[in-house]
Amino acid sequence: MALRVEETQKRNRIQVSNTKRPLFFYVNLAKRYMQEYNEVELSALGMAISTVVSVAEILKNGGFAIEKKIITSSLEVGDDSRDRPIQKAKIEVVLEKTANFDALMAAAPNENEEE
């Protein structure tokens, strides 16, 4: 049973980058993950942390999600231009869908097509 929970946590994780995708790509992806798994984990390093915070706030303020857990930490990351590793900040935010999530999604069925 614990293995199954671990697999679900990996499938519903979104690793956010601040350069690869626009903000609302992550917002809409998080909504789809919450539809399928009831919760989503947003994860980011360094400069992408602000993107995770923005996505979480958009989902919370829109009534789609509530914060379940926030974890901050730092990682040592190798840097080819330096002899020693550098520290990178990391954030993980777990969001759970709200009781009225399905009603909100039904009210805006074409939201993904607007982009």
Report what the structure shows.
It is elongated, with a radius of gyration of 16 Å. The longest helix has 15 residues, at 23-37. The protein has 4 helices and 4 strands. With 115 residues, the protein is α+β, with helices and mostly antiparallel strands. The model is unreliable at 1-9 (pLDDT under 50). The chain has helices at residues 2-11, 23-37, 49-61, 101-107, and strands spanning 13-15, 39-45, 65-77, 86-97.
Strand order of the largest sheet: 1-2-4-3
Q: From N to C, what is the helix and strand string? A: HEHEHEEH
Morphology? elongated
Helix content: 25-40%
Strand-residue fraction?
25-35%
Secondary structure tally: strands: 4
Average pLDDT works out at 87
| Helix/sheet category | alpha+beta
Q: If helices are DSSP runs of H or I spanning 4 or more residues, what is the number of helices?
A: 4
Q: Let me know the largest β-sheet.
A: 4 strands, mixed
End-to-end Cα distance, whole Å, is 39 Å
Low-confidence stretches: 1-9
Rg calculated over all Cα atoms: 16 Å
Feature tags:
115 residues, 4 helices, alpha+beta, 30% strand, four-stranded mixed beta sheet, elongated, single chain, disordered N terminus
Short description:
The chain is an alpha+beta fold and 115 residues long.
